[in-house]
Design goal:
This protein has about 450 residues and is mainly beta. The protein has 2 domains: about 180 residues, Jelly Rolls (Sandwich); about 240 residues, Beta Barrel (Thrombin, subunit H). The chain has 8 helices and 31 strands. About 50% of the residues are buried.
Length: about 450
């Protein structure tokens, strides 16, 4: 009887479930942590083919981590594993079903997974974690299913990950869970150059809001860039995330995006020790354009209030600021802040009039993984550039190139190739817009729009 119920459960396709707000972090522990279940050594394990970390790292460095290419950190391994051809099923004492699969990729520094089919019944959840239970992500539920029926996960440290599925007793809906990608991390998020400034340092104090807007972003589970939440004239808290075209965002991979918030050193000068637990997965492509090197996606969920994010403001006037500040994730490492004291100049290095040049940084630098981060005007604290490429480092004082939002504003002339439609949906004609705190949207959530002005006027 149990076998027949199990086959019925996994034998069909789940109807499309509407996406809703959810957060990719452990809000409750996996079922196996609290109930008696088969010990992990006896759970089905699949071992991936050998991967040469040193060769992959050398190839990534040869291609140029900081010359206008995304920062590669993992190697994609194609698999075809689902709940019928792999894993270990068992029924728990409360009548619910538990399925687990151990995945090992020897030598991996970390792993992340791509599910090409992610159809769960209501009430079911998926977790991923390392065998020591130190990195636990989930539960992922039907709400996390992208428009393409997929799910991409954040990283779990180490060379083995456990996938756990829990299905409540009495569930009649079928499920369809298929793992198609195991992404083998061939390099860690190494300590960035010693000249970088941790954002927790006093230098970051005047920039606390803008720091909260910046995040590390993974695309396809194999490459990293930086980016930031950005405000729009609608002032509605739509989670638009701005980064660079060359990072590889597209309508085909937008749901593979994983954003890591608050990845920051806890102590000034430590340049390590940040948590990757404040993350969320999925986005919808909105616009991109190559000449000014911008990409804009809308995140699939509002960032959780615990992430304490900020929507940065922007300036598309094209007036060169007298200095500039960069906030970014050098080498995919913890968040840093850099300072340039010189006026920005227009460069012809890429395409005429499309980019600003930072000749050199007086304090800090950028590195591979910094691409897509904003350049801010110290006077207005508004975003005036998007990092494309450069040769700056802690050992070589050299230039960086930032795409101009003023050029991206009109882009290629269509909504899919320009910023204007998304950041000025009111068609206000604004050339600059201040940032806003996410908490404004949260506090206003229960108020009708007609009463919002009166309510805001009473806020100190």
């Amino acid at each position: 009887m149990r076998q027949r119920n199990l086959l019925s459960l996994v034998g069909g396709l789940l109807l499309v479930v509407q996406a809703g707000p959810a957060v990719s972090k452990m809000y409750r522990p996996p079922a196996s942590f609290g109930q008696e279940a088969t010990e992990l050594p006896f759970v089905d394990q699949r071992v991936m083919p050998a991967v040469d970390n040193a060769a992959l790292l050398a190839a990534a460095k040869r291609s140029g981590d900081h010359v206008g290419l995304p920062y590669r950190f993992a190697h994609a391994i194609q698999v075809d594993l689902d709940v019928r051809n792999s894993g270990t099923w068992e029924r728990l004492d409360d009548g619910s079903w538990l399925w687990r699969l151990r995945i090992s990729s020897p030598g991996a520094l970390h792993l992340n997974l791509g599910f090409s089919r992610f159809g769960l019944p209501e009430g079911a959840g998926v977790w991923i974690y390392d065998p020591a239970r130190e990195d636990v992500e989930g539960p992922y539920t039907a709400r996390h299913r992208s428009a393409r029926g997929r799910l991409w996960t954040p990283i779990v440290r180490g060379d083995e990950v456990v996938v756990e599925l829990h299905v409540p007793d009495g569930t009649a809906e079928p499920l369809d869970l298929r793992l198609s990608r195991v992404n083998h991390g061939f390099r860690g998020f190494e300590k960035s150059g010693a000249c970088n400034n941790d954002v927790i340092c006093p230098e970051g104090d005047p920039w606390r809001n803008q720091i909260r807007s910046v995040a590390r972003v993974a695309i396809g589970g194999v490459s990293l860039c930086s980016g930031q939440l950005i405000n729009s004239t609608a002032q509605d808290g739509a989670p638009y995330f701005l980064s660079a075209f060359h990072c590889g965002f597209s309508p085909q991979n937008d749901d593979t995006v994983v954003v890591y918030w608050k990845y920051e050193a806890p102590v000034c000068g430590q340049q390590t020790g940040g948590s990757l637990g404040f993350n969320q997965t999925g986005s919808t492509f909105r616009a991109s354009e190559e000449s000014s090197d911008f990409a804009l996606v809308e995140l699939s969920q509002d960032p959780d209030p615990e992430f304490d994010v900020y929507f940065t403001g922007w300036d598309v006037s094209g007036v060169p600021p007298l200095g500039s500040v960069g906030i970014h994730h050098p080498s995919g490492d913890v968040k840093s802040i850099s300072f340039n004291d010189d006026v920005l100049t227009t460069t012809e290095w890429i395409e005429p009039d499309t980019h600003w040049m930072v000749d050199d940084w007086e304090d800090g630098t950028t590195e591979g993984g910094s691409s897509g981060s904003c350049l801010w005007d110290p006077a207005s604290k508004l975003c005036v550039g998007i990092l494309t490429a450069g040769l700056a480092s802690c050992t070589v004082i050299d230039f960086d190139l930032y795409g101009k939002p003023a050029v991206a504003w009109e882009g290629g002339g269509t909504p899919e190739t320009r910023l204007r439609d998304w950041l000025d949906p009111l068609a206000s004609g604004a050339q600059a817009l201040a940032g806003r705190d996410q908490m404004v949207e949260i506090f206003a959530d229960g108020f009708e729009s007609g009463n919002l002005s009166a309510w805001s006027a009473n806020v100190p």
